[in-house]
Amino acid sequence: MAAESPTSSPFVHLHVHSQYSLLESTVRVKQLCQRTQELGMPAVALTDSGNLFGAAEFYFTAKDFAVKPIIGIDAFIAPKTRFVKGEDREAMQMPNRRIVLLAQNNEGYQNLCKLSTIGYHEGFYYKPRLDWEAIREHSSSLIALSGGSMGEVGYAFSRQGPEAALAKIRELKEIFGDRFYLEINRTSTPEWTELSPFLIEASKITGVPLVAANNVHYLDQADQIGQEVLICIGSNKTLHDESRFRLGSDQFYFKTPAEMAKLFKDIPEALTRTLEIADRCDVKFKIKDESGKSIYHLPYFTADDGTPPQELIRSTVMKGLQERFDEADKIESPIPAEKRSEYLERIEFELGVIEKMGFTSYFLIVADFINWAKNNEIPVGPGRGSGAGSLVAYCL
Prior knowledge:
Elements: H1 29-38, E1 43-49, H2 55-64, E2 68-77, H3 89-93, E3 97-103, H4 106-121, E4 129-130, H5 132-137, E5 142-145, H6 152-160, H7 162-176, E6 180-185, H8 190-206, E7 210-213, H9 224-235, H10 257-263, H11 269-280, H12 309-330, H13 337-357, H14 360-375, H15 385-388, H16 391-395
Parallel strand pairs: 1-2, 2-4, 5-6, 6-7
Antiparallel strand pairs: 2-3, 3-5
Protein backbone atom coordinates (compact mmCIF):
# COMPACT_ATOMS: atom_id res chain seq x y z
CA MET A 1 0.00 0.00 0.00
CA ALA A 2 1.39 3.40 -0.96
CA ALA A 3 2.09 5.73 1.92
CA GLU A 4 0.03 8.88 2.22
CA SER A 5 1.56 12.25 2.87
CA PRO A 6 1.81 12.78 6.64
CA THR A 7 0.44 16.31 6.26
CA SER A 8 -2.35 15.69 3.73
CA SER A 9 -4.95 14.37 6.18
CA PRO A 10 -3.67 14.55 9.76
CA PHE A 11 -5.23 11.86 11.90
CA VAL A 12 -4.30 9.39 14.65
CA HIS A 13 -6.28 6.26 15.55
CA LEU A 14 -7.09 6.42 19.28
CA HIS A 15 -9.45 3.45 19.66
CA VAL A 16 -7.81 0.25 18.42
CA HIS A 17 -8.18 -3.38 19.50
CA SER A 18 -5.46 -5.96 18.87
CA GLN A 19 -4.98 -9.69 19.22
CA TYR A 20 -4.89 -9.07 22.98
CA SER A 21 -8.62 -8.31 22.88
CA LEU A 22 -9.03 -12.06 22.94
CA LEU A 23 -11.45 -13.46 20.33
CA GLU A 24 -12.53 -9.92 19.42
CA SER A 25 -9.88 -8.56 17.06
CA THR A 26 -7.66 -9.89 14.28
CA VAL A 27 -5.16 -7.00 14.48
CA ARG A 28 -1.59 -8.04 15.26
CA VAL A 29 0.67 -5.53 17.01
CA LYS A 30 3.52 -5.59 14.49
CA GLN A 31 1.15 -5.23 11.53
CA LEU A 32 -0.62 -2.36 13.30
CA CYS A 33 2.61 -0.42 13.84
CA GLN A 34 3.84 -1.14 10.32
CA ARG A 35 0.57 0.07 8.77
CA THR A 36 0.64 3.21 10.91
CA GLN A 37 4.11 4.00 9.61
CA GLU A 38 3.14 3.27 6.00
CA LEU A 39 0.21 5.67 6.23
CA GLY A 40 2.40 8.45 7.60
CA MET A 41 0.56 8.70 10.91
CA PRO A 42 2.84 9.90 13.72
CA ALA A 43 1.20 7.88 16.50
CA VAL A 44 -1.34 5.17 17.27
CA ALA A 45 -3.16 4.03 20.40
CA LEU A 46 -3.71 0.50 21.64
CA THR A 47 -6.92 0.18 23.65
CA ASP A 48 -7.62 -3.48 24.25
CA SER A 49 -10.72 -4.67 26.06
CA GLY A 50 -10.13 -4.31 29.78
CA ASN A 51 -6.46 -5.29 29.70
CA LEU A 52 -2.89 -4.13 29.13
CA PHE A 53 -1.57 -7.51 27.95
CA GLY A 54 -0.05 -6.05 24.80
CA ALA A 55 1.29 -2.79 26.25
CA ALA A 56 5.00 -3.69 26.43
CA GLU A 57 5.09 -5.43 23.05
CA PHE A 58 3.18 -2.55 21.49
CA TYR A 59 5.43 0.11 23.04
CA PHE A 60 8.70 -1.33 21.78
CA THR A 61 7.31 -2.40 18.40
CA ALA A 62 5.94 1.10 17.79
CA LYS A 63 9.34 2.55 18.68
CA ASP A 64 10.95 0.20 16.16
CA PHE A 65 8.71 1.66 13.45
CA ALA A 66 9.30 5.27 14.59
CA VAL A 67 5.66 5.56 15.66
CA LYS A 68 4.63 7.15 18.96
CA PRO A 69 2.82 4.57 21.13
CA ILE A 70 -0.27 5.68 23.06
CA ILE A 71 -1.19 3.17 25.74
CA GLY A 72 -4.78 2.77 26.85
CA ILE A 73 -7.62 0.39 27.61
CA ASP A 74 -11.23 0.11 26.51
CA ALA A 75 -12.52 -0.44 30.03
CA PHE A 76 -15.68 -2.31 31.03
CA ILE A 77 -17.93 -0.48 33.50
CA ALA A 78 -20.05 -2.68 35.77
CA PRO A 79 -23.83 -1.97 35.72
CA LYS A 80 -23.84 -1.21 39.44
CA THR A 81 -20.54 -1.61 41.30
CA ARG A 82 -17.59 -3.85 40.55
CA PHE A 83 -18.47 -5.96 43.61
CA VAL A 84 -22.03 -6.80 42.46
CA LYS A 85 -21.94 -9.95 40.38
CA GLY A 86 -24.14 -12.97 39.68
CA GLU A 87 -26.04 -12.69 42.93
CA ASP A 88 -27.94 -9.66 41.54
CA ARG A 89 -30.40 -10.73 38.83
CA GLU A 90 -31.09 -7.17 37.70
CA ALA A 91 -27.37 -6.47 37.30
CA MET A 92 -26.93 -9.72 35.35
CA GLN A 93 -29.42 -8.53 32.75
CA MET A 94 -27.75 -5.14 32.30
CA PRO A 95 -24.81 -4.89 29.88
CA ASN A 96 -21.38 -3.58 30.81
CA ARG A 97 -20.71 -0.09 29.47
CA ARG A 98 -17.36 1.06 28.11
CA ILE A 99 -14.98 3.99 28.35
CA VAL A 100 -11.63 4.50 26.60
CA LEU A 101 -8.80 5.58 28.91
CA LEU A 102 -5.42 6.77 27.56
CA ALA A 103 -2.25 7.29 29.61
CA GLN A 104 -0.83 10.81 29.37
CA ASN A 105 2.45 9.93 31.08
CA ASN A 106 4.01 7.35 33.38
CA GLU A 107 1.68 8.30 36.23
CA GLY A 108 -1.25 7.68 33.89
CA TYR A 109 0.22 4.33 32.87
CA GLN A 110 0.54 3.34 36.54
CA ASN A 111 -3.11 4.27 37.03
CA LEU A 112 -4.08 2.12 34.05
CA CYS A 113 -2.15 -0.76 35.62
CA LYS A 114 -3.98 -0.26 38.91
CA LEU A 115 -7.37 -0.10 37.19
CA SER A 116 -6.68 -3.20 35.12
CA THR A 117 -5.66 -5.07 38.26
CA ILE A 118 -8.79 -3.91 40.10
CA GLY A 119 -10.90 -5.05 37.15
CA TYR A 120 -9.48 -8.57 37.32
CA HIS A 121 -9.05 -8.97 41.09
CA GLU A 122 -12.20 -7.27 42.36
CA GLY A 123 -14.60 -6.70 39.48
CA PHE A 124 -14.22 -9.81 37.34
CA TYR A 125 -17.52 -11.32 36.25
CA TYR A 126 -17.10 -12.74 32.75
CA LYS A 127 -15.18 -9.51 32.02
CA PRO A 128 -12.70 -7.45 34.08
CA ARG A 129 -15.05 -4.67 35.23
CA LEU A 130 -14.52 -1.35 36.95
CA ASP A 131 -16.85 1.09 38.64
CA TRP A 132 -16.78 4.85 39.01
CA GLU A 133 -15.38 4.69 42.53
CA ALA A 134 -12.23 3.00 41.20
CA ILE A 135 -11.98 5.25 38.15
CA ARG A 136 -12.34 8.43 40.18
CA GLU A 137 -9.61 7.30 42.56
CA HIS A 138 -7.19 6.54 39.72
CA SER A 139 -8.22 9.13 37.12
CA SER A 140 -5.20 11.44 37.31
CA SER A 141 -3.08 11.73 34.15
CA LEU A 142 -5.67 9.80 32.16
CA ILE A 143 -7.44 11.10 29.05
CA ALA A 144 -10.96 9.70 28.64
CA LEU A 145 -12.91 9.19 25.43
CA SER A 146 -16.62 8.52 25.72
CA GLY A 147 -16.13 5.30 23.77
CA GLY A 148 -18.21 3.40 21.25
CA SER A 149 -21.98 3.13 21.02
CA MET A 150 -21.92 1.10 24.26
CA GLY A 151 -19.94 3.79 26.04
CA GLU A 152 -21.50 5.51 29.04
CA VAL A 153 -22.81 8.38 26.89
CA GLY A 154 -24.03 6.20 24.05
CA TYR A 155 -25.75 3.82 26.44
CA ALA A 156 -27.49 6.63 28.31
CA PHE A 157 -28.64 8.16 25.00
CA SER A 158 -30.06 4.93 23.59
CA ARG A 159 -31.70 3.71 26.80
CA GLN A 160 -32.69 6.91 28.62
CA GLY A 161 -32.65 9.70 26.07
CA PRO A 162 -30.73 12.94 25.37
CA GLU A 163 -31.13 14.53 28.81
CA ALA A 164 -29.68 11.50 30.57
CA ALA A 165 -26.81 11.45 28.10
CA LEU A 166 -26.09 15.15 28.70
CA ALA A 167 -26.08 14.50 32.45
CA LYS A 168 -23.58 11.71 31.93
CA ILE A 169 -21.36 13.99 29.81
CA ARG A 170 -21.34 16.60 32.58
CA GLU A 171 -20.52 13.92 35.16
CA LEU A 172 -17.56 12.69 33.11
CA LYS A 173 -16.38 16.27 32.52
CA GLU A 174 -16.44 16.80 36.29
CA ILE A 175 -14.14 13.77 36.76
CA PHE A 176 -11.69 14.36 33.92
CA GLY A 177 -11.96 18.10 33.21
CA ASP A 178 -10.29 19.06 29.94
CA ARG A 179 -9.06 15.48 29.61
CA PHE A 180 -12.49 14.27 28.52
CA TYR A 181 -13.52 14.05 24.85
CA LEU A 182 -16.68 12.96 23.07
CA GLU A 183 -15.71 10.14 20.74
CA ILE A 184 -17.61 10.08 17.46
CA ASN A 185 -17.54 7.11 15.07
CA ARG A 186 -19.07 6.84 11.62
CA THR A 187 -19.11 3.11 11.06
CA SER A 188 -22.51 2.98 9.32
CA THR A 189 -24.33 1.21 12.14
CA PRO A 190 -27.88 2.21 13.20
CA GLU A 191 -26.61 3.10 16.68
CA TRP A 192 -24.07 5.59 15.36
CA THR A 193 -26.47 7.01 12.78
CA GLU A 194 -28.66 8.12 15.69
CA LEU A 195 -25.91 8.99 18.16
CA SER A 196 -23.63 11.12 15.94
CA PRO A 197 -25.99 14.14 15.49
CA PHE A 198 -26.63 14.17 19.24
CA LEU A 199 -22.89 14.20 20.06
CA ILE A 200 -22.29 17.14 17.71
CA GLU A 201 -25.05 19.10 19.44
CA ALA A 202 -23.96 17.94 22.91
CA SER A 203 -20.44 19.19 22.23
CA LYS A 204 -21.84 22.66 21.58
CA ILE A 205 -24.01 22.57 24.70
CA THR A 206 -21.41 21.24 27.16
CA GLY A 207 -18.19 22.52 25.63
CA VAL A 208 -16.70 19.01 25.59
CA PRO A 209 -14.71 18.65 22.35
CA LEU A 210 -15.40 16.00 19.72
CA VAL A 211 -12.74 13.55 18.58
CA ALA A 212 -13.00 11.19 15.62
CA ALA A 213 -12.29 7.46 16.00
CA ASN A 214 -13.13 4.19 14.29
CA ASN A 215 -13.14 1.51 17.04
CA VAL A 216 -10.76 -0.67 15.03
CA HIS A 217 -11.17 -4.47 15.25
CA TYR A 218 -9.43 -5.54 12.03
CA LEU A 219 -6.70 -4.08 9.87
CA ASP A 220 -8.22 -4.40 6.38
CA GLN A 221 -11.85 -4.24 5.38
CA ALA A 222 -11.54 -7.75 3.92
CA ASP A 223 -10.66 -9.06 7.41
CA GLN A 224 -14.22 -8.56 8.65
CA ILE A 225 -15.14 -12.21 8.17
CA GLY A 226 -12.09 -13.30 10.19
CA GLN A 227 -13.14 -11.05 13.05
CA GLU A 228 -16.68 -12.47 12.95
CA VAL A 229 -15.25 -16.00 13.12
CA LEU A 230 -13.36 -15.03 16.29
CA ILE A 231 -16.58 -13.70 17.83
CA CYS A 232 -18.33 -16.97 16.93
CA ILE A 233 -15.57 -19.02 18.57
CA GLY A 234 -15.75 -16.88 21.70
CA SER A 235 -19.54 -17.08 21.94
CA ASN A 236 -19.94 -20.71 20.77
CA LYS A 237 -22.00 -19.66 17.75
CA THR A 238 -21.77 -20.34 14.02
CA LEU A 239 -21.70 -17.85 11.17
CA HIS A 240 -25.15 -19.09 10.15
CA ASP A 241 -26.63 -18.28 13.57
CA GLU A 242 -28.75 -15.15 13.17
CA SER A 243 -28.63 -14.49 16.90
CA ARG A 244 -24.83 -14.16 17.02
CA PHE A 245 -23.21 -10.87 17.99
CA ARG A 246 -22.01 -8.61 15.18
CA LEU A 247 -20.31 -5.24 15.18
CA GLY A 248 -22.92 -4.21 12.64
CA SER A 249 -20.94 -3.27 9.51
CA ASP A 250 -17.68 -3.86 7.66
CA GLN A 251 -16.34 -0.43 8.61
CA PHE A 252 -14.42 -1.26 11.79
CA TYR A 253 -11.06 -1.42 10.02
CA PHE A 254 -7.88 0.65 10.21
CA LYS A 255 -8.91 3.46 7.88
CA THR A 256 -6.43 5.77 6.20
CA PRO A 257 -6.24 9.46 7.11
CA ALA A 258 -7.80 10.26 3.72
CA GLU A 259 -10.76 7.95 4.43
CA MET A 260 -11.27 9.50 7.85
CA ALA A 261 -11.02 13.02 6.36
CA LYS A 262 -13.76 12.14 3.90
CA LEU A 263 -15.97 10.74 6.66
CA PHE A 264 -15.54 13.80 8.87
CA LYS A 265 -15.26 16.56 6.30
CA ASP A 266 -18.08 18.45 8.06
CA ILE A 267 -16.21 18.46 11.41
CA PRO A 268 -12.47 18.50 10.54
CA GLU A 269 -11.63 19.67 14.07
CA ALA A 270 -12.59 16.18 15.30
CA LEU A 271 -9.69 14.86 13.21
CA THR A 272 -7.08 17.42 14.27
CA ARG A 273 -7.94 16.77 17.93
CA THR A 274 -6.56 13.27 17.52
CA LEU A 275 -3.16 14.92 17.00
CA GLU A 276 -3.78 17.14 20.03
CA ILE A 277 -4.43 14.06 22.16
CA ALA A 278 -1.39 12.29 20.72
CA ASP A 279 0.74 15.30 21.71
CA ARG A 280 -0.67 15.15 25.24
CA CYS A 281 0.30 11.49 25.64
CA ASP A 282 3.94 10.62 26.27
CA VAL A 283 4.58 7.43 28.24
CA LYS A 284 8.24 6.47 28.48
CA PHE A 285 9.24 3.00 29.60
CA LYS A 286 12.55 3.20 31.44
CA ILE A 287 14.51 0.00 30.89
CA LYS A 288 17.99 1.11 32.00
CA ASP A 289 19.21 3.19 34.91
CA GLU A 290 21.73 6.04 34.82
CA SER A 291 24.65 3.60 34.81
CA GLY A 292 23.24 1.65 31.87
CA LYS A 293 22.18 -1.31 34.01
CA SER A 294 18.94 -3.01 32.94
CA ILE A 295 15.95 -2.31 35.18
CA TYR A 296 13.76 -5.28 36.09
CA HIS A 297 10.38 -4.24 37.38
CA LEU A 298 10.13 -6.69 40.24
CA PRO A 299 9.00 -6.25 43.84
CA TYR A 300 11.79 -5.12 46.17
CA PHE A 301 12.18 -8.10 48.48
CA THR A 302 12.93 -7.35 52.11
CA ALA A 303 12.69 -9.51 55.22
CA ASP A 304 10.05 -8.88 57.87
CA ASP A 305 12.75 -7.24 59.99
CA GLY A 306 13.68 -4.89 57.13
CA THR A 307 16.91 -6.60 56.10
CA PRO A 308 17.91 -5.38 52.61
CA PRO A 309 17.90 -7.98 49.79
CA GLN A 310 21.70 -8.01 49.38
CA GLU A 311 22.23 -8.87 53.05
CA LEU A 312 19.30 -11.30 53.14
CA ILE A 313 20.40 -13.35 50.14
CA ARG A 314 23.97 -13.63 51.45
CA SER A 315 22.96 -14.74 54.96
CA THR A 316 20.35 -17.17 53.59
CA VAL A 317 22.76 -18.69 51.07
CA MET A 318 25.51 -19.12 53.71
CA LYS A 319 23.02 -20.77 56.06
CA GLY A 320 21.91 -23.09 53.25
CA LEU A 321 25.52 -23.97 52.39
CA GLN A 322 26.29 -24.80 56.02
CA GLU A 323 23.21 -27.05 56.13
CA ARG A 324 24.60 -28.96 53.13
CA PHE A 325 27.96 -29.30 54.84
CA ASP A 326 26.20 -30.58 57.99
CA GLU A 327 24.22 -33.11 55.97
CA ALA A 328 27.46 -34.44 54.48
CA ASP A 329 28.92 -34.77 57.97
CA LYS A 330 25.87 -36.72 59.17
CA ILE A 331 26.26 -39.35 56.48
CA GLU A 332 29.97 -39.57 57.28
CA SER A 333 31.02 -38.09 53.96
CA PRO A 334 32.46 -34.74 55.07
CA ILE A 335 33.45 -32.08 52.57
CA PRO A 336 37.24 -31.46 52.72
CA ALA A 337 38.38 -27.99 53.78
CA GLU A 338 39.91 -27.18 50.38
CA LYS A 339 36.63 -28.15 48.66
CA ARG A 340 34.67 -25.98 51.06
CA SER A 341 36.79 -22.96 50.09
CA GLU A 342 35.97 -23.66 46.42
CA TYR A 343 32.28 -23.57 47.24
CA LEU A 344 32.70 -20.27 49.08
CA GLU A 345 34.58 -18.76 46.15
CA ARG A 346 31.86 -19.97 43.80
CA ILE A 347 29.14 -18.39 45.93
CA GLU A 348 30.98 -15.05 46.03
CA PHE A 349 31.29 -15.10 42.24
CA GLU A 350 27.61 -15.98 41.69
CA LEU A 351 26.35 -13.40 44.19
CA GLY A 352 28.41 -10.77 42.41
CA VAL A 353 26.87 -11.66 39.05
CA ILE A 354 23.34 -11.74 40.50
CA GLU A 355 23.75 -8.33 42.17
CA LYS A 356 25.34 -6.79 39.07
CA MET A 357 22.42 -7.96 36.91
CA GLY A 358 19.83 -6.68 39.40
CA PHE A 359 18.44 -10.16 40.10
CA THR A 360 18.81 -10.26 43.89
CA SER A 361 15.11 -9.76 44.65
CA TYR A 362 14.21 -12.14 41.83
CA PHE A 363 16.19 -15.01 43.38
CA LEU A 364 14.62 -14.33 46.79
CA ILE A 365 11.11 -14.23 45.32
CA VAL A 366 11.58 -17.53 43.49
CA ALA A 367 13.11 -19.14 46.58
CA ASP A 368 10.17 -17.92 48.65
CA PHE A 369 7.45 -19.57 46.57
CA ILE A 370 9.47 -22.75 45.87
CA ASN A 371 10.22 -23.29 49.56
CA TRP A 372 6.60 -22.56 50.45
CA ALA A 373 5.49 -25.17 47.92
CA LYS A 374 7.90 -27.76 49.31
CA ASN A 375 6.78 -27.06 52.88
CA ASN A 376 3.17 -27.53 51.82
CA GLU A 377 3.79 -30.82 49.97
CA ILE A 378 3.32 -29.27 46.52
CA PRO A 379 5.63 -30.83 43.92
CA VAL A 380 8.24 -28.51 42.42
CA GLY A 381 9.56 -29.32 38.97
CA PRO A 382 13.22 -29.10 37.95
CA GLY A 383 14.54 -25.74 36.87
CA ARG A 384 16.86 -25.21 33.93
CA GLY A 385 19.48 -22.70 32.90
CA SER A 386 22.40 -21.05 34.67
CA GLY A 387 20.18 -19.49 37.35
CA ALA A 388 18.38 -22.68 38.35
CA GLY A 389 21.64 -24.63 38.15
CA SER A 390 23.62 -22.22 40.30
CA LEU A 391 25.07 -22.97 43.70
CA VAL A 392 23.20 -19.95 45.08
CA ALA A 393 19.84 -21.41 43.97
CA TYR A 394 20.80 -24.80 45.48
CA CYS A 395 21.66 -23.22 48.80
CA LEU A 396 18.51 -21.04 48.80
